[in-house]
Amino acid sequence: MTTFQKTITIPANHRIELDLPDSLAVGQEIVVTISPKGSKKPRRTLASLAGSLADSANFSGDAVGLVRQWRDEW
Question: CA within 20 to 30 Å of 61's CA: 3, 15, 68, 74, which one?
Answer without folding.
Answer: 74
